[in-house]
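1st attempt posting a full record on here, be nice pls
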Amino acid sequence: MNWPLFALAVAAFGIGTTEFVIMGLLPDVASDLGVSAPAAGMLVSGYALGVAAGAPILAILTAKWPRKQALVGLMSLFILGNILCAIAPNYGFLMVARVVTAFCHAAFFGIGSVVAAELVAPDKRAQAVALMFTGLTVANILGVPLGTAFGHATGWRSTFGAVTVIGVLAAIMLWTMLPKKIAMQSGNIFQEFRAIMATQVQLSLLTSTLASISMFSVITYIAYILLDVTGFTAQQESWVLLLFGAGITVGGLVGGKLADWKLMPVMCAIFLCIAIVLGLFSWTSHYKWPTLVTMFAWGAFAFAVVPAAQVRVLDTARGAPNLASTLNQGAFNLGNATGAWLGGVAISIGLPLTDLPLIGSAVALLGLATVALSASLDKRPKLAA
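the predicted structure (as tokens):
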């Protein structure tokens, strides 16, 4: 057992749970605070935008902090944010609390990815990053459904109280299990900002955004597809999403191993597979058993790209790994918000739900083109620079 990686995964589990569990609790929150469903839904978008906005701010504030202290400090901010969520007296207070919680997200995963890669041999970096992100996948499999059930039974505030406890546990584990001294690159944060403007770094960040847009343009509205198109019941829907979560877990671990083998060819192959699976989902969504197969495969391919994209950012931004890794989390969450918006626009103009996977497939092909362009620039160093 690599205990430092395990501590990072526990922290990732807490962050992932607090990000996504709100979706299952929205009716409870809306009823308790007296707001509409769309207003409650903004708590999801507010968190995603908070991650994107907090990425550069926290990157600057933590640039000179020792890595261990920075991670524990960010978890302390996470704990504070969840306490504020649990005691929020009104909608506005809860929105601010969600944004406070979101601020630690990008910086934690950004710094945590760099630390995870430093804890293992060079040829195991993607696997180490994947292991840290396993906490995020387990959050989707266990944390979100259990947190939702707990909130329904005891009140939505209790869920954030439980996540606070997880945050405290994670902070203790990080403090006791991470090495006292973790290598960190010296340099000026503003020089790092200039470094990330390089073409290859920007293409890497764009790749992460497109991967997230492809996923969230569909997954945001997956309940409507499963219920209204496929014909699953509300109870069956939970099991289908559990299967999707299982695919995410497998994809994250396998994707990390493959990325350590052949990074760019693997990324191209993953984006192509995502495009094919989502294209098929436009048809298979009409039938239950094909939908089950498609959901598992989609989850696997959709998350296989995450550790690969994170390592690609580290490779292209060697002069600013912490900043670039942090901004990459902002790029993923910008994709979350954009994908949800894109799917909503498609529905609002009257497109059928079965067109959403086709939109996601088209975005995945854009991701494939971006990776292919970046790979071609690798062969032309002067042009890449």
